[in-house]
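check these tokens.
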Amino acid sequence: MKNLTSRNLALLAGKLALEKQASDIKILDLRKISNISDFFVVCSAKVDVHLKAIADNIVEKLEQKGAKVWHNEGYPQGRWIILDYVDVVVHIFLEEARKFYDLEGLWGDAQVQEVSDNGKVQKTGRKTGLKPRKRKLK
């Protein structure tokens, strides 16, 4: 994995998701708010076959660059696939599952970059825009 920093790995994973027409691709920078991972890459798929095609493309092409997935989850269920590269975790959701689990809301303090349809990565200059949920304690 020569010269493939966690940031570069996240950017590449986002662009590889776009190759298979993933939508709403966001890269959440967690480095200042958590030690579980440096980046989350979050994207959406239309149907389960699409979800698996996105995941397979990312795994295959990153492996060619020397980055092997450490752990994956969700292939059999086909609603949410997680590809764990330790410093980068890729989350590929069916659209309704993404809304339900709301990772962007849970990580509302993360800085965000978006991968546009033309493959350019744009800093939003803002956090996810969503406030972390406040829970009422009884």
